[in-house]
């Protein structure tokens, strides 16, 4: 009999047993998983937790501000923001293979944490209290799809499971490892996190890096951010957020098509809308969003986002498609 209160009490006990009086670091991604994982650990060990938010430059519009303002205001956790935008862009230069992108982002993510750890350890050196633990918001489906479950083949290496380097210096704390997304949301509500964070749609750790089909560049990120912001704004305005599990917006940077815009011919990139309905992300169906909504979003994107002259709708279920394109 599943009960969020029981799970919290049980996890708090386990976390305390694992961490003891040690210091622990938690990366906040802006998503519900890391927010709930951090809130659980904060409940268990309080000020022993330091949260780090890495701005890897693959975030959507406004996400950094949401973590720095809303989450900190609601939890009171100590937060350090690391600006690693340059580092990730450099590491991703010239890379187009999806698995390679995921591995690079996962690796740089951990290394950025190691650098942040070194700084924080130095800061806490006077107290003789090094950081030995790292919280990860790994969910059960992540574990299964990365081959950590019962005999399932590796489908995609999730950056918080398969992409970890061998020389990892932290002991992992994974309080959500046995849970599905809806259970994580229930726990977040029980912990008193604001609805705006708890009801938030999932967003992958590798961020917009795996929503650009082709090489990741700053210019392409700006294009995708603009299109994604339109989609999210219009979903909320139409009251459709609760109708979908998530809606990845994908830029086909290596594809161009001919169009006619304004005073003549255009030769731009397509944007893919991938609205999906799901219970746990293990399977999904494409969401039948209203035609009027689709028309409005298509018009806005092609009118407002430079370099995009076509909007297409992904009507593939999972399986055979995955939710993300890479
Ligand atoms: P797929 O594309 O495998 O996605 O159908 C299933 C769910 O997982 C999210 N996703 C990720 N989340 N790190 C994450 O934390 C990742 O590397 C990652 N890849 C996919 C995806 O958004 C969907 O909700």
From TrEMBL:
Enzyme Commission code: 6.3.5.2
Signal peptide: none
Entry binding sites for ATP: 29-35
UniProt keyword terms in alphabetical order: ATP-binding, Glutamine amidotransferase, GMP biosynthesis, Ligase, Nucleotide-binding, Purine biosynthesis
Domain GMPS ATP-PPase: 2-200
Superkingdom in the source lineage: Bacteria
Catalytic activity annotation: XMP + L-glutamine + ATP + H2O = GMP + L-glutamate + AMP + diphosphate + 2 H(+)
One GO cellular component, as annotated: cytosol
Molecular-function annotations in GO: ATP binding; GMP synthase activity
Pathway in which this enzyme or protein is active: Purine metabolism; GMP biosynthesis; GMP from XMP (L-Gln route): step 1/1
Self-association and partners: Homodimer.
Protein's job: Catalyzes the synthesis of GMP from XMP.
Protein name, UniProt field: GMP synthase [glutamine-hydrolyzing]
Species in which this protein is naturally found: Protaetiibacter larvae
Gene this chain is encoded by: guaA
Residues of the full protein shown: 202 to 527 of 527
């Amino acid at each position: 009999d599943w009960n969020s209160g029981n799970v919290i009490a049980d996890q708090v006990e386990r976390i305390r047993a694992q961490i003891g009086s040690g210091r622990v670091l938690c990366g906040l991604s802006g998503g519900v998983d890391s927010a709930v994982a951090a809130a659980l650990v904060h409940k268990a060990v309080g000020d022993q937790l330091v949260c780090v938010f890495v701005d890897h430059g693959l975030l959507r519009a406004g996400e950094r501000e949401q973590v720095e303002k809303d989450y900190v205001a609601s939890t009171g956790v100590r937060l350090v923001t690391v600006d690693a935008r340059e580092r990730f862009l450099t590491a991703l230069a010239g890379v187009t293979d999806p698995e390679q992108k995921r591995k690079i982002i996962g690796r740089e993510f951990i290394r950025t944490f190691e650098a942040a750890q070194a700084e924080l350890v130095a800061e806490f050196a006077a107290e003789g209290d090094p950081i030995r633990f790292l919280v990860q918001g790994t969910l059960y489906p992540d574990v299964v799809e990365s081959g950590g479950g019962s005999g399932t083949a590796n489908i995609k290496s999730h950056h918080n499971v398969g992409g970890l380097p061998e020389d990892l210096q932290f002991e992992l704390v994974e309080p959500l490892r046995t849970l599905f997304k809806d259970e994580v949301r229930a726990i977040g509500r029980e912990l008193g996190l604001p609805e705006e964070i708890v009801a938030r749609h999932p967003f992958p750790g590798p961020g917009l890096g795996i929503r650009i089909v082709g090489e990741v560049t700053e210019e392409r990120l700006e294009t995708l951010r603009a299109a994604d912001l339109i989609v999210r704004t219009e979903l909320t305005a139409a009251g459709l957020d609760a109708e979908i599990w998530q809606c990845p917006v994908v830029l086909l940077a290596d594809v161009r098509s001919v169009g006619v815009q304004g005073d003549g011919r255009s030769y731009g990139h397509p944007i893919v809308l991938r609205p999906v309905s799901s219970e746990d992300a293990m399977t999904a169906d494409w969401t039948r969003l209203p035609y009027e909504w689709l028309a409005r979003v298509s018009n806005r994107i092609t009118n407002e986002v430079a370099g995009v002259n076509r909007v297409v709708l992904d009507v593939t279920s999972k399986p055979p498609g995955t939710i993300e394109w890479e």
